[in-house]
Design brief:
Shape: elongated
Number of helices: 4
CATH architecture of the largest domain: 2-Layer Sandwich
Structural class: alpha+beta
Largest sheet: 4 strands, antiparallel
Distance between the termini: 14 Å
CATH topology of the largest domain: Alpha-Beta Plaits
CATH class of the largest domain: Alpha Beta
Number of domains: 2
Order of helices and strands: EHEEHEEHEEHE
Helix content: 10-25%
């Protein structure tokens, strides 16, 4: 499961991800991180069965945590199956099926937004 973690350095300079891994024993995959001097946002992936435990621990450390069940929405009425999203996506989220229709592997998405910018019909939206 993908979790979007926001934190403020005003609450301390603790290594939130490292401490969460150590205290929960859950391995965390960091998929994207924007960290500045006083705040940060990190997109992490954790096993679905451990998501509640990780959320609870991160919140104890003062972070805001949002579960992302579906990160990108595709409007099938707008999509023309052009494949522009396939060519731009760094995570291979999009692919053609045997009938040349666009399909998605949503679990691979890291919310970079490149697909939404590239889509000529505006058929893709980031859900945050």
């Amino acid at each position: 499961m993908k979790l979007l973690v926001n934190f403020s350095r005003k609450k301390g300079f603790e290594p939130l991800i490292a401490k969460t891994v150590m205290e929960t024993g859950v391995l965390i995959n960091v998929e994207r991180a924007y960290i500045e001097s006083m705040s940060g946002e990190v997109l992490i992936d954790v096993p679905d069965s451990e998501a509640s435990k990780v959320c609870k621990k991160l919140r104890e450390f003062g972070a805001d945590v949002e579960r992302l069940d579906n990160s990108v929405k595709r409007d099938e009425n707008e999509c023309i199956d052009c494949g522009e999203c396939i060519s731009i996506c760094p995570q291979d989220v999009f692919y053609f099926d045997e009938e040349w229709s666009i399909q998605m592997r949503i679990e691979r998405c890291v919310l970079c937004g490149k697909c939404t910018s590239a889509c000529p019909h505006g058929a893709l939206k980031l859900l945050q």
